Amino acid sequence: MQNEGAIRLSIFLGILVLMALWELAAPRRALRQSKWRRWGGNLGIVVVNTIVVRLLFPILAVGAAIWAQQKGWGLFNLIEWPYWLEVAAGAALLDMAIYWQHRLFHKIPLFWRLHRMHHADLDFDVTTALRFHPLEIVVSMVIKLTLMLILGPAALAVLIFEVLLNGTAMFNHANVRLPLGLDRWLRLMVVTPDMHRVHHSVNPGEFNTNFGFNLPWWDRLFGSYRDQPVGGHEAMEIGLRAYGGTVCANLLWMLVLPFKPIVNDLEDGGNEQS
Q1: For the whole prediction, is pTM greater than 0.85?
Q2: In angstroms, rounded to a whole number, what is the distance separating the alpha carbons of residues 123 and 85?
Q3: What residues are paired with 238 via a beta bridge?
């Protein structure tokens, strides 16, 4: 698809800047750490991930969807669908797959070792949405490319899904304040910051809820939805109990974290509480 990279980069940068400005104007919570220290590590991991993906994957999700369509592979290439329905259903199915991938990354100890870097952030803002270990990105890419072959979605559906996923992830990780009434209405259609922040609580009963990044329906449908944290958003503790201090914002520490032993009940990835 022509100009895919330029489209995605423009939207990514636009939303990142917008959310960063919104956080300055109307923050939801006071930050525990220096924003600039955290942003250095969280944005640094984006650079590492971009290099890793470019080196390891000659084809990305949209290209894989086009290739599968040319080969006639996948569910959507075996059934005659109206194009609009194929695009809508394809984007929704991919979002549901990411929901289940997220739950598995909490459930399976090997995957949790990779994913815990995301949760080890002691604050919750727009850059937390970008904080994923390179090995997790690699596993996610393999899963995503496999889905392209199984589902064979339209390339437009994949592009819409990718753009929405990146954009809504930055939105729902942002440290921004929304009127409570607006939040209640918005979370019928999209995961809001107050909804997803619960997922970053150190409380196991909250930590294993609200797995969605984009559409909020899967948490409600599959029994993992939690409306609010027990202690309220301002008082809830974010991060993992096993880790604290400025080291959590250090890029090198983030890169080696998967190889450190699991040292806390909350981290074991095998006691999912939905």
Answers
A1: yes
A2: 39
A3: 201
**Residue-level pLDDT, tens digit, the chain, 274 residues:** 567 678 788 999 999 999 999 999 999 999 989 888 999 999 999 999 999 999 999 888 999 999 999 999 999 989 888 999 999 999 999 999 999 999 999 999 999 999 999 999 999 999 999 999 999 999 999 999 999 999 999 999 999 999 999 999 999 999 999 999 999 999 999 999 999 999 999 998 899 999 999 999 999 999 999 999 998 999 999 999 999 899 999 999 999 999 998 776 455 443 333 2
User: What tokens does 109 get?
Assistant: 């100890």
Cα torsion angle, 226, 111, 67, 78, sign: negative
Q: Give the amino acid at 2.
A: Q
- At which residue do the structure tokens 């650079």 appear? 47
Tell me the residue length of the chain: 274
Taking the C-alpha atoms of residue 208 and residue 52, their distance in angstroms, rounded to an integer, is: 29
Does residue 179 contact residue 243 with C-beta atoms inside 8 Å?
Answer: no
Tell me how far CA of residue 65 lies from CA of 70, 76, 117, 164, 165, in angstroms: 9, 11, 30, 17, 17
Tell how far CA 26 is from the center of its chain.
Answer: 23
Ranges of H-type helices in the chain: 4-25, 35-56, 61-71, 83-107, 109-119, 134-151, 155-172, 180-186, 193-197, 204-207, 217-221, 251-256
Classify the C-alpha dihedral 214-219-224-225 as positive or negative: positive
